[in-house]
């Protein structure tokens, strides 16, 4: 190891920053956050630094000296940073530091530096510092971004909570090994969950009672996660974290392998998919599975295609969990309508064509008959029909019957956002024939409205949209 990693206490210590530009600003800001007394030396001091001093955000700890650097500026200083764009000045600062035994960092020049500054992930009081020893700053930044995505903002609050309780925990559990075990379980238990749900008060109460018992029981929980439409890049960071934290994942058929691969390697993955006509795994079985695993103290992720609250029975599952006292969280996902619109180049609303959008389920059978067709038949709105593949003919007939023009553009988006995505464009009058000719299969979303025609011009993903005319020619 070329460098010795350390966190320095700079509170009320004097630090010299040579340079007055934007690089200096970044360093000064961080130093002030760490409580240092900062002196900036540069003949030209930029507006940003001047503003910082004027607005008093520095609490009087920032001194600006519009002078050229000289060795005397090192008097009383514990640390110095050279942040000028003049290599000669930077070299002089480095040399002065060596003479005076003061550690100096020359920004981005490791050879001249006696200390280097790491990339950081700040979840104060928890701070993660990453360094490539000045060899590959890009790599260090990439690692930083990765870590940044792994821990959400509640980590700092959790660390602060531990800080508040440290004394009491030590008193209650004087044995080091027992204390470590307690902390370890705390990390994966309900206290951490409650902090993540930003309910710090409840977390404090839970911690208090666990401490009174002298042990933590791993509390099972369920996170209802929306996996999005297929493209794993559309999963949210919170969704990713839940997957990497899961003991058991109960996933739908619609969830892509690409998303499942992001899960923790040793998580148990159970497919509970339901096809439209094959109810092999019933909703009751899914409820029982969630309950069984959560009660065994496991962290369960219930992973659903798209968004869990849009035609995903997420509401029912949460009602069941609530009735059985199982704690839960919800991570939204990108629903098929939003994704298919985006990936087919169909803006669902448009100033000239549609002022509203309706998400409608056209699931086989009764639901088609109970829809408010007269509302759906109105012009200047976009309708996104889920689960509509089997009912294309009835959708066409009802919409036209209730006033929508047979010339209204429609798009059928099959496998939206996935590599095999297909977009079929037709008019409402041709909806069923076009769907049949293209042999559209589930999952597919039907978009009805003027905006559908924009796909011709705005498509950008996968194959170009197929028009009904092309389909006829191919036949
Ligand atoms: N909760 C899901 C919807 C579940 S209902 C969501 O928010 O997206 C299942 C229906 O969603 C499918 O029949 C289809 O109409 C639609 N769907 C889901 N994923 C899709 C995809 N990748 N492309 C097109 N339609 C999709």
Description:
The protein has 475 residues and is α/β, with parallel strands linked by helices. The protein folds into four domains: 14-117, NAD(P)-binding Rossmann-like Domain (Rossmann fold); 154-213; 221-331, 3-Layer(aba) Sandwich (Cobalt-precorrin-4 Transmethylase, domain 1); 337-474, Methyltransferase, Cobalt-precorrin-4 Transmethylase, Domain 2, CATH 3.30.950.10. 38% of the residues lie in helices and 18% in strands. The protein has 19 helices and 18 strands. The strands form four sheets. Strands 13-14-17-15-16-18 form a six-stranded mixed β-sheet, sandwiched between helices. It has a five-stranded parallel β-sheet with strand order 3-2-1-4-5, with helices on both faces. A hairpin with a 2-residue loop joins strand 6 (119-123) and strand 7. Helix 5 (154-172) runs parallel beside helix 8 and helix 7 packs antiparallel against helix 8. The longest helix has 19 residues, at 154-172. It is globular, with a radius of gyration of 30 Å. The model has no long low-confidence stretch (mean pLDDT 92). S-adenosyl-L-homocysteine binds at residues 229-230, 254, 304-307, 310-312, 335-336, 340, 386-387, 413, 415-418, 442-445.
């Amino acid at each position: 190891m070329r460098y010795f990693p350390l966190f320095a206490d700079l509170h009320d210590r004097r630090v010299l920053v040579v340079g007055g530009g934007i690089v200096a600003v970044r360093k000064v800001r961080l130093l002030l956050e760490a409580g240092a007394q900062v002196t900036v030396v540069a003949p030209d001091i930029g507006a940003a630094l001047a503003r910082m001093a004027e607005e008093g955000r520095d609490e009087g700890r920032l001194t600006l000296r519009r002078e050229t650097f000289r060795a005397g500026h090192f008097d009383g200083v514990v640390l110095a940073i050279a942040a000028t764009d003049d290599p000669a000045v930077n070299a002089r600062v480095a040399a002065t530091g060596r003479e005076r035994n003061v550690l100096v960092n020359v920004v981005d020049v490791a050879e001249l530096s006696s200390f280097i500054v790491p990339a950081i992930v700040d979840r104060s009081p928890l701070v993660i510092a990453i360094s490539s020893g000045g060899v590959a700053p890009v790599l260090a930044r990439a690692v930083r971004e990765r870590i940044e995505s792994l821990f959400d903002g509640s980590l700092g609050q959790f660390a602060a909570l531990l800080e508040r309780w440290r004394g009491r925990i030590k008193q209650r559990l004087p044995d080091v090994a027992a204390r470590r075990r307690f902390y370890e379980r705390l990390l994966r238990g309900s206290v951490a969950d409650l902090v993540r749900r930003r309910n710090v008060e409840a977390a404090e109460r839970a911690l208090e009672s666990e401490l009174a018992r002298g042990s933590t029981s791993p509390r099972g929980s369920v996170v209802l996660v929306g996996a999005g439409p297929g493209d794993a890049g559309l999963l949210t960071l919170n969704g990713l974290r839940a997957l990497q934290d899961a003991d058991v994942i109960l996933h739908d058929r619609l969830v892509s392998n690409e998303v499942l691969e992001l899960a923790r390697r040793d998580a148990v993955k159970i497919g509970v998919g339901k096809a439209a006509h094959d109810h092999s795994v019933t909703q009751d079985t899914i409820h029982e599975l969630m309950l069984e695993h959560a009660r065994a103290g496991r962290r369960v992720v219930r992973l659903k295609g798209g968004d869990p609250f849009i035609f995903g029975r997420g509401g029912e599952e949460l009602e069941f969990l609530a009735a059985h006292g199982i704690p839960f969280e919800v991570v939204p996902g990108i629903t098929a309508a939003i994704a298919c619109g985006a990936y087919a180049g169909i803006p669902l609303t448009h100033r000239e064509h549609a002022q509203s959008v309706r998400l409608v389920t056209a699931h086989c059978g009764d639901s088609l008959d109970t829809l408010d067709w007269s509302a759906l038949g109105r012009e200047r709105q976009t309708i996104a029909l889920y689960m509509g593949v089997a009912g294309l003919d009835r959708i066409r007939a009802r919409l036209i019957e209730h006033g929508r023009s047979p010339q209204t553009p429609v798009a059928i988006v099959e496998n939206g956002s996935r590599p095999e995505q297909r977009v079929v464009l037709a008019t409402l009058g041709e909806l069923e024939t076009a769907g049949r000719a293209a042999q559209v299969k589930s999952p597919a979303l039907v978009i009805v409205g003027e905006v559908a025609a924009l796909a011709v011009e705005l498509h950008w993903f996968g194959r170009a949209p197929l028009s009904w005319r092309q389909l006829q020619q191919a036949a």
